[in-house]
Design brief:
By secondary structure, the chain is α/β, with parallel strands linked by helices. The protein folds into two domains: 132 residues, Rossmann fold, CATH 3.40.50.10240; 74 residues, Jelly Rolls (Sandwich). It contains four helices and 14 strands. It has a ten-stranded mixed beta sheet with strand order 4-3-2-1-5-6-7-14-9-12, with helices on both faces. Helix 3 packs parallel to helix 4. The longest helix is centred in the middle third of the chain and has 17 residues. The chain starts with a strand and ends with a strand.
Length: 218
Amino acid sequence: MKKPIIHIVAGGPGHLIPDLSLFADHPALWAGVDLGVRTIILAGIAPHIAVGDFDSVSEEEWQQIEKKVPAIHKFRPEKDETDMELALMWAASQEPDKIVIFGGTGGRLDHFLANAFMMAGYKQKYPAITFELIDKNNVLSVVLPGSYSLERDPLKKYVSFIPVFNKVTGLTLTGFKYPLNDHTVPPGSSLCISNELIEKTGHFSFEKGILMVIRSID
């Protein structure tokens, strides 16, 4: 049986969330995190599950959620995990091929950083799952050691490679404006920020560590 794709929608600023209807035809399960479930409903998409403490939802909104969502996992506000982590825990338990997060950037920096680093941690724990965080201007993915290809995107022409947790060793970039060969990049380095593809297809590889790969619109 084909593994599912899971789209998680958090309650981040609406102006940064792409048009979800563009993703509606994908064979995906949709999970709303707190107020993010309203974003799914307003996009004309049927949510499969809602997760969170729903402390930012009005009574009227809650009644709509109860009516529209077949599975609701409601938690007390006083808990150890964020609503996003509860959603990721559920999503990973479904053994999907891919998990995509929308509404996880912008607004509060603590939420964005927690979401990005949480994704990296889950990638280490579930290496077979592809993880992406998407907004209108960026696509952030997390990758483990190996060899990868990137197609040039005229809209998102900037590509950044950011080490997470520990240094990345053996980083090699070909087909990029600023190539590298077997380079070690420590966390916090700005060396690999705002690179650009000069070939139709670029390649990158590394031997140890974990990378966030971010493709951005200027």
